[in-house]
């Protein structure tokens, strides 16, 4: 699995143009991921609110969203595998016995991403 994620992340690099401007690049990825996530939401809405089956679109746009995730990781030189592992560790801490609504609430605490954990 580790090799697959690394291979995917490297393959994504080969499917984009080279940016001269770093800010323009990260803004492209930031807006792009939002657009693709919006496409996922739109396909879900069409499927379940309008009776227009777009389930294959949900699937395809999840892949497109993943591409932007990989590109944001590439921009910051982060290993996507590390991020997935960190996320699993965070979830294990938050839900040691599996999902629980009380643990999900987190006491309405706000998160400061710059604060040391
Ligand atoms: Mg798409």
What is the general shape? globular
Classify the beta-strand content into a percent band.
Answer: under 5%
**Mean pLDDT over the residues:** 93
- How would you characterize the largest beta sheet? none
List how many beta strands DSSP finds. Answer: 0
What order do the SSEs take from the amino end to the carboxyl end, as H and E? HHHHH
Per CATH, which architecture? Orthogonal Bundle
Helix content: 55-70%
Could you tell me the CATH topology label. Helix Hairpins
- Unreliable spans: none
How far from one another are the termini? 28 Å
Number of helices: 5
Bound molecules: magnesium ion
Domain module count: 1
Q: Could you please describe the fold and organization of this structure?
A:
The protein is mostly helical and 117 residues long. The protein has one domain (2-103): Helix Hairpins, CATH 1.10.287. The protein has helices at 2-13, 22-49, 55-75, 80-94, 101-105. The structure holds magnesium ion. Magnesium ion is lined by residues 36, 39, 61, 64.
């Amino acid at each position: 699995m580790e090799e697959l994620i690394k291979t995917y992340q490297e393959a994504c690099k080969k499917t984009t143009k080279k940016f001269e401007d770093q800010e323009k690049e990260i803004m492209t990825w930031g807006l792009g991921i939002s657009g693709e996530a919006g496409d996922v939401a739109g396909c879900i809405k069409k499927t379940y609110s309008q009776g227009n089956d777009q389930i294959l679109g949900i699937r395809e746009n999840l892949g497109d969203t993943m591409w932007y995730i990989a590109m944001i990781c590439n921009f910051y030189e982060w290993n996507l595998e590390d991020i997935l592992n960190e996320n699993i560790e965070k979830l294990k801490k938050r839900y040691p016995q599996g999902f629980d609504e009380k643990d999900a609430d987190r006491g309405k605490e706000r998160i400061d991403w710059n604060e040391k954990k």
